[in-house]
Amino acid sequence: MNKKFITFISLLLLIFIFLGVFTSISFAEDDNRSYSIPFANIHIYIQENGSIHIVETINYVFYGTYNGVTRDIPFKSNEKIENLKVSTSGAYSKFESYDENGEKRIRVYLYSNSEKTKPVTDKKVNVTYEYDFINVVKLYNDGATLHYTLWGDGWDVDLGKLNAYIHLNNKSGVKYWLNPSELILNSKWDINTLEVTTDRLYSGNLFELRMIIPKDYFTNSTYALIFNEDGIAAFENSQKEYEDGVKFFSSFYEILALVMLGLCFIPVIIYIVYGREPKIQYQGIYERELPTDDSPAIVNALYRGNVGSVNMDAFKASVLSLVNKKYLKMENFENSDTSSDENSMNPTITFSSDLNFSNLSSSEKSAFKTLKLFADRNEKLDLEVFKNDMKEEIVAKKFRDYYNSWCKEVEDEAKKNISKFFDSTGSDYGGFLALGGLILSGIIIMAWFFSFLPFTYVESFSYILPAMIFLIFVSVMIIIIPNHILGRWTVEGREASKKWLNFRKYLNDFSLIKEYPPSSIEIWDQYLVYGTALGLTKVVKKNMEKLIPKENLDSMDSYCFYSYGGTSLMFSSFDTGISTASASDSNSGGGSGGFGGGSGGGGGGAF
After folding, report:
1. pLDDT at 154
2. Which residues, 6 or more positions from 470, have their beta carbon under 8 angstroms from its beta carbon?
């Protein structure tokens, strides 16, 4: 698979994953304020007439100024909420309520003064909601059921702890379930009151009560729903299906975490099978002559970074090679004062179009034609003008398009013989693995964000997060590392690669050059050209200045071009053009799941 395609798709996926994580974070409306709900106390009184009386006390801690809080209580079409009362401690208040889209919506305004003119600031406030819920209990021939959500999934912030008290006149024959059971810290009967304390309830999670009550508990059924059929078995079966779902997804999440961790170790297997390099006879320590007669662009494509891909160093090296071979000549480099108003005195490149181009590689010919497109009618390229032009969007995009075309030509040329030097099988498999890892991670994140994953509160779900982070890290590393890490050289390619690596080592080590200098001064021009292709332009120039007399340096075309205004203007112009074009492009244009369905619940926030 093409490394650039994998990188492009993977970057899109990383952006997708980042946005998924970023948008799933709950922010306060104002950066300078926040609030929390450390605990809530809920009392449920199951009445003998079939109604339930609810008393909710929610503890708010405000940091900054708030006008009040909201509470939304959903109810079904046959249910009613009556006798609503709201009271507060720690603040003065007033409230308003209305029914909308199957919810009782309550808005409580909080004040710090008795005149009710100043909102609360940095306060701890308890808000108590008291109401009767009608037609929530279902009365069947074989018993009664209560399915009630003690804490809903519509809250804006987490709940530190829920204390729930379910009061009955008689607990005899009562069966109950609390879902999810994993969140229960304590559950016990105190005479006829079921007392429950939960662990932290995260925003988006809900906690529910399912209860079976003997039919004779209710002395009348005025405020209960009556069904002339048996219903207890179906109710118990619903609970069993829920518990089976918890078990299934608990195992599923464990397996999914193990699969993701397993994917992280597949690159090791890929390396062992496809990435280990063949043994070669070559044992050289350094190379001071060019190891092969390849053009600088092909050397960059094969032995610098990803095998088969070129970067800007290849284009710059090709330009230096054209200077060294006299196809590009320099004018006015002794007068490269950029403050001069005379364009004629600016550093200028002239094009020698009358020379024999058969001596050039295809990449050098293409580089010559690309540069010449920006020359004036006299086949001269004023470098000051060129640099300024690269700041213009139209010209910059034109240069980038030509440069990209040049890169593709070089890469196509390299691919013609690349199989003789390099086996990309392991790298291709690694690319597919990285792409798959990022896709899988993205799916999990978005499924969690949109609450498609049920039972996310179970302990095994927490294993997925570290496994996913590790998988994303491994996938990104596969994308970043050069493809020859998981791929491997052929015997011929390995020997050439080692030689070019040793040549780069030689150029980069002044002590080696000093001890084993090149056989002639002309070779230094080649060093500068191929050092640029290998990313060592400045190092080679520095070593040249240490070892070669000044008068000899000034006779070397490629050195003069680099040192007296050539690359400082032209090469920075290349970079400016690419960055200008890219900048122009950029300027254009928690789920609970698995259960629920009971009465009550809902959520709330602050404003």
Report:
1. 86
2. 260, 261, 264
